[in-house]
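User: Fold this; tokens only.

Assistant: Input:
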Amino acid sequence: MVEAHLFGFGGALWLALFIATRTPQRSWLFWASITSLLGLMGFFGSGVLGGEGLNLEQLISLERSFWWSSVLPITAWLMVCSLIHQTLQPSIAKITKPERWLVGILGLILIGLGSFSNWLLNYAEPVLLASGSQIIGTGPAYPIYSAYVMGCVSAAIWHLVASWRIAETGMARRSLASLVLGALGFLIGTSSLLARLISMSTWPIFYGYVPIFAGLLITGFGLVRFGLLLQGQNVLRDLIYSFCEISILALIYLISVNILALLRPSQLALLLACVIISHTGLDRGRRWLDRLFFSRAEQEARSQSREFAIALASTPTPTPAPVIIDAKPDKAWNDAVRRAISGLKNPVQLAQNPLLSSALVSNIVQSKTLEDNRLNRSAIARELLLQAIEQLRPDASQALGSGDAWRWYNVLYLPYVREINRKTAIDWLRRGLSDPLIDASVLSWLADIDEDTFYKWQRRASDLIAAQLWEQQLKLLQAIVE
């Protein structure tokens, strides 16, 4: 059973690191998921340590020290399911918030009872098995713990089923269905293990762990695919790729050392942890090395290239948006154009912009007979935006002006194309720096603008570009319809 515990320990650790490295925002859902996975790491890790032939005193110390891992994962998992339900149906918060508080308090009480008393596990009277070995038996209050586990799993399944029923998109419903399936795996596995422990049965414990492992994998894939943790990113391909990579590496290392019988179970777990941490966190390690060998500009370029590769994996080629013929652009279109302009120098941000799925971009991809991928769509979107910004220029001269006629052009061209913002202008003026294409009067104009006014002008200018692009798309769609 050591191999099974190693598998569970490694799977929980890898999934926790994957979520941590791919999630840009730290929400309550994120922390609940990480807590649940850390609890599973403790649970399976204690099983690895228990496979080293400990004596009775060591076994009792191990059980007391890691009893929290028998309570925390299921408690945090219920909170995850509750938060998913609340995210899809905010009105349920009046029920879910008290529920999370109650479950958390009961979980802390059970952790305390199991760690410091004989009520849940009877440390004072070990059970002698037919094989001659001794195990820690259950205490008089153990049925309370069993009821708590079954209640948490049942409530989690209820939240997931309710979330599935109100989910609006097909992908969300499929992901929630996989979460329900994973929760059922946990229910079957935990029920089997609890029944085996209470009845002191001798049937193989492996039968209880199989559905738990299946539930862990299915739940992990479903949770990440659902996208709540990753703010809408579809990282299924990246998830499967990372899982296969880590699995191959772990098998190579573990099989190699296991054949030679060089390491104890705890040392194998440590080796597995090192493999998973080093390879899952490889990009962060590369950033540290970049600081030693590359300039700041080169560091940013290398970091962006790695982030762009992740973005390509987590955001597949966009499908064309539905054809909507409306005289004026809606708020979503204006917001997408505004974010795309601010991301002209950020390939990662631009690669995930909804503008890439527009009919305008799709038509250019087809007309230029380019391969339809996110990289080409990003390049086309950037070219469209640069052309639109140039159309705001009041005259054809290369030198910039500072009058009212230049207002819309300057507030977009200077910060997003030339990367010269108000602070940069103030610094240049103070240090006497200049640019062949930018007169000192333009820098003074930029430095003197009130910050609120500057942002209002930027919004107005981006809305003008959004209207221009929308008009181009309307003409294209009308031509297609005709």
